[in-house]
Amino acid sequence: MSVVTVQLGQCGNQVGQELFDVISSDAQDGQRKTYSSVSRERFFRQTSQGDFEARAVLVDMEPKVINHSMNRAAKSGRWRYAEASHFSQKQGSGNNWANGFRVLGPRHRDAVEELVRREVEHCDVLAGFIPMMSVAGGTGSGVGTFVTQCLRDVYPSSFVLNHLTWPYGTGEVIVQNYNSVLTLAHLYQLSDALLVHENDAVHRICSQQLNLKQISFGDLNRVIAHQLAGVLQPALTPDSCGAYSGNPLGIDWQVRPPPASAGRTSSLTAGGFNASLANLLILRGKDVYSAETGGFEDPAIYTSWLPPAEALSLWKSPVPFDKYEKSATLVSNSQALLRPLDDMVRKAWNMFASRAYIHQYVKFGISEEDFLDSFTSLEQVISSYAQLQC
Amino acid sequence: MTQSVVVQVGQCGNQVGCRFWDLALREHAHVNKRGLYDEALSSFFRNVDLRKSDGGDCCVGGRIQHLKARAVLIDMEEGVVNGILQGPLREVFDSTQLLTDVSGSGNNWAVGHLTYGSAYREAIVNKLRKAAEHCDCLQCFFLIHSMGGGTGSGLGTRVLSLLEEEFPDVCRIVTAMYPSAEDDVITSPYNSVLAMRELTEHADCVLPVENQSLVDIVNKISVMSHGAKPGSVLRKDSTVTSGQGSLSPTEKPFDAMNNIVANLLLNITSSARFEGSLNMDLNEIAMNLVPFPRLHYLVPSLTPLYTLADVNIPTRRLDQMFSDAFSKDHQLIRADPKRSLYLACALMVRGNVQVSDLRRNIERLRPSLPFVSWNQEGWKTGLCSVPPVGHSHSLLALANNTCVKPTFMELRDRFTKLYRKKAHLHHYLDVDGMEQSIFSESLSSLSELIDEYHQLDATKARLIPDAPRLSIAR
Fold it and tell me: What GO molecular function annotations does the UniProt record carry, in alphabetical order (chain A) (predicted)?
């Protein structure tokens, strides 16, 4: 089963390169043949000379980052990007979601779809797509949303899992909240799942857990890549009978709606504990079969209308990951993102109330109505998550 | 990658422009070790092979043959442009890029804007088109001119309208030199206010620079360098004043001042030219810093100051650089942004600086900076890996801040003092096409602008509650 990654914008291309690097290095150990070959098949294809090329399409509206990522990949000696798998223009999207979504995306649709099609043709069995992007800028967010829409149109029965990087709360881009709101509202309808990394949280990992004094974007990206690879590398699911046969993107992201019931209150900090809808726990390395995971099935952490046995998925792989003797990855569909999402919407709404910067979006075809639709959409998401109760 | 074209108009515009080209060449020479014509160079220079019959433009990737600046030089007197053509930069321009006349504009905006504006309209448009045609993907016009004179102010703003007409999709960034109160051109307030209206209506962004601020900064650098240890070596190849490389009294006084403005242009384009972990393209500047179309006056500040001179002062703490960017001594107009209201702020960092340094300083400085209620985290940041020549790092801050209001109000006062008495008005009204209504309209435009800043200022003291959120049916 193979996955086609679409790297969009500066962030998508920088993180994507780190992701392939971790995966390739993790898969390299010759003693773990099945793991290695499944991982390689998933993310790389081999040329006739035996070189590994990433199953990736690189998209950006300006060329500097793609060039940089391709050079870095080639330097690794273990893998590289295929020569013809990138698309770039000369001038960026200007941090403008409207420019990315309404103008640049449609303008370059054919070229990007062609690159994706070629990558898909190289796959024996397609597991699905991972568009990688930030939500703050113009290309990743705007063009990325448009490309996600195209993937949906052209491959209606494939999984689409978007990896999203959320910016630092204290700006990298002033209009980041507008761009984020527009992106998330659209992706909610288009994507099967949104896997989120927040720069603030990753930054905390770098400073508090890794004790890095000076933190660069490269450091952040490597942490993100490590965590993401921890989800995507081969693992055994309960029903896979000892083979890595599952669709790596085929996590049961679908959550059944709650039964109608009266008297539900909502709170952003429901008793200080984030209620979970569903969790995926992935254990890798030593002692995976004897690890005690009962705590993850505790009904107290799950919303009341889902039995924990259904809400928790457990995957295991006895193969150590990324040189860690033991590691665990938790993918959680819970209220953890509720506060950051609410903050983002609140700030965007305050800015919208004064109509600041709106003329920049109207110029490229996004109206005030479009904004209102996106706000409404996200308020509904916030409301739904806020109503979860353990 | 994209290209930009510099259009320098009038005496001041051409002197500053000249300094910019000198610095740009040095910067690229320092970074470009292999003599290849790369994308970074192509953003401001063409590579011409004079032996080719078709006019000679070479593509990116080959060896450097002959660099030509992507520039148009306009002046209604010949002195400055002739000086450039006889100086060390003569090879960088060819005659098709120049437009000169002999009699000057007599410090009269109307002569520049209307008389020469009409007479040379076609010639100007042709030269601009030529420059644009040499570009693969033209992103931005940088217009440089002074506000107080006649050519820069009058013809310069005419060129601005022409740019909008002919190239509506290309960003227009104007570096405008504002006269000090003690300016010896009596009619400079007229010229400035007449030009301001044009800038408000036709520019995407304006970087206002006040002469007095430049003088103060040059003096500061001078004090710093004399305070440095004896035997300090003067840096040989850093981006510096013209050839001489020292702050000796024999040096032309304006060189050091023009250098600062030239550095501003160099730094604002650095992230578009060179690599970095968080790029900031030119089209992102207008997008992030201009919340309402007319409020596009961005106050620049450059730190450390010693990057603007040849002196070898040991690198001070990185954090000091960030603090300085917000101090009133480093602004290029005489204003104190900390005492006014920030609408938005961009920080463009060059050199060995990481995102954690950036975050730490933003968090540290944020509490002392008043931001408008709807843009509390209004920061746009960029990290470019290539530092300015001879230094390890530098910072350019661009602030959309209501501190421009006092500057504009002073300008309006000086204008009104003259206008009330109708002093020198006939010089303008005698010019074909000039009418009194243009004066009154320009004054209104300025007053409206001041008022818009004033409205925003009024929100500063008030505690603005969050806007009530949409309520969703359950």
Answer: GTP binding; structural constituent of cytoskeleton
Q: Which domain holds residue A44?
A: 2-240
Burial of B410 from C-beta contacts in 10 A (0-12 / 13-18 / 19+): middle
Q: By percentage, how much of chain A surpasses pLDDT 90? A: 71
Choose the final residue of a domain: B270, B292, B314: B292
CB contact under 8 A, B381 and A379: no
Q: Which domain holds residue B216?
A: 3-292
Q: B136 and A68 in contact by Cβ < 8 A? A: no
Q: What is the DSSP letter of B300?
A: E
Do the chains contact at B374 and A350, CB–CB below 8 Å? yes
- Chain A residues 149-168 with CB within 8 Å of chain B: 168
Q: Within the 364-383 window of chain B, which residues sit less than 8 Å (CB to CB) from chain A? A: 366, 373-381, 383
Nearest to B469 among A206, A214, A379 (CB): A379
pLDDT of residue B241: 38
Q: Which domain CATH number covers B447?
A: 1.10.287.600
Q: From B361, B454, B462, select the one nearest B409 (Cα to Cα).
A: B454
Which residue has tokens 């099609």? A117
Whether residue B385 is contained in a domain is answered as: no
Tell me the per-residue pLDDT of A146-174, one tens digit each, with 9 for 90 and over.
Answer: 999 999 999 999 999 999 999 998 878 99
pLDDT at B240 (0 to 100): 39
Which of B287, B363, B366 is the closest to A95 by Cβ?
Answer: B287
3-state SS, chain B, equals CCEEEEEEEHHHHHHHHHHHHHHHHHHHHHHCCCCECCHHHHCCEEEECCCCCCCCECCCCCECCCEEECEEEEECCCHHHHHHHHCCCHHHCCHHHEEECCCCCCCCHHHHHHHHHHHCHHHHHHHHHHHHHCCCCEEEEEEEEECCCCHHHHHHHHHHHHHHHHCCCCEEEEEEEECCCCCCCCCHHHHHHHHHHHHHHHCCEEEEEEHHHHHHHHHHHHHHHHHCCCCCCCCCCCCCCCCCCCCCCCCCHHHHHHHHHHHHHHHHCHHHHCCCCECCCHHHHHHHHCCCCCCCECEEEEECHHHHCCCCCCCCCHHHHHHHHCCHHHECCCCCHHHCCEEEEEEEEEECCCHHHHHHHHHHHHHHCCECHHHCCCEEEEEECCCCCCCCEEEEEEEEECCHHHHHHHHHHHHHHHHHCCCCHHHHHCCCCCCHHHHHHHHHHHHHHHHHHHHHHHCCCCCCCCCCCCCCCC
Contact present, B402 and B453 (Cβ < 8 Å): yes
Least confident of A90-99, A257-266, B228-237: B228-237
Q: Is residue A257 part of a domain?
A: no
Please, are residues B177 and B145 in contact by the beta-carbon 8 Å criterion? yes
Contact B5, B142 (CB under 8 A): yes
H-helix segments, A109-216? 109-121, 144-154, 176-190, 199-204
Number of domains chain B contains: 2
Considering only CB atoms, which chain A residues are within 8 Å of B467? 349-350, 352-353
In a domain, A252, yes or no: no
A383 to chain B, closest Cα gap in Å? 8
- How much is the pLDDT for B202? 97
Do the domain assignments include residue A327? no
Could you give the ipTM of this predicted complex?
0.86
Per the CB < 8 Å rule, is A216 touching B277?
yes
* Residue found under tokens 């024999």: B250
Domain of A15, CATH number, reads: 3.40.50.1440
CB contact B42 to A (< 8 Å):
no
Of the three residues B238, B271, B292, the one that is the final residue of a domain is B292
User: Beta partners for B47?
Assistant: B67
